[in-house]
Amino acid sequence: MPDPDAKIQTGISIQNELGGFMIRILIADDHAIMREGLKQLFALGTEVMVVGEAVNGGQVLDALYAGGIDLVLLDMTMPGVSGVDLIQRIRAHESYPPILVLSMHNELPIARRALAAGASGYLTKDNKPETLMQAIRKVVAGGRFIDPELAEQMVFESSSPDQRPQHELLSDREFHILLLLVRGKSVNQVAEELSISNKTVSTHKARLMQKMKFQNNADLVRYALAYNLIE
């Protein structure tokens, strides 16, 4: 059932005062200050219209069924289904819009996972408004965009597997569970959020702990802080 709290506006494309069609954006971010700031930014111009807001993965999927969206501006970490899982679910929609990830995570492995899952662009939240607008235009036009600093890292990084961060060796599911655990979620809470069994979560947790050679959750949290994985 659609989420009654989701703010969704549907309809046909709307022309701006210059006769061009405005880009209809769904802002998906669980931080109210971020959503309000983006709405104020877009209101200063004539290119973008915010037609919906979502604070969790369920609301994003409800908005897709309502239609009338040209671009999903997506945070990577929200309550419920999020991150790579949410990107894949959006892509599974019959007529999905392009996805531009706008995240606080400036780690190349996270950006790479998002792009591999089907996002058309990845930008960190510390970029200038001009860069965000450039990314929006390019992605809506069918192109791809990656944060300039991350793109530079991608060019110069070593391709040697033994020099990659430990978390880049995890599967998408293991990495998602890692992010939830370091945010303070229990195994039961992770299972409920991902709609999987406690046993499955425990198995994934054991595997990721083994891969990363960690003994306990404190090791995970220290690592996550060192690599800026905690929002």
TrEMBL record:
One of its GO terms (biological process) is regulation of DNA-templated transcription. InterPro entries: CheY-like_superfamily, NreC/VraR/RcsB-like_REC, Sig_transdc_resp-reg_C-effctor, Sig_transdc_resp-reg_receiver, Tscrpt_reg_LuxR_C, WalR-like. Residues 24-140 form the Response regulatory domain. GO terms for molecular function: DNA binding. Pfam families: GerE, Response_reg. Residues 163-228 form the HTH luxR-type domain. The modification 4-aspartylphosphate is found at residue 75. The keyword Ligase does not apply. PANTHER family: NITRATE_NITRITE RESPONSE REGULATOR PROTEIN NARP (PTHR43214:SF41), TWO-COMPONENT RESPONSE REGULATOR (PTHR43214). This is Bacterial regulatory s, luxR family protein.
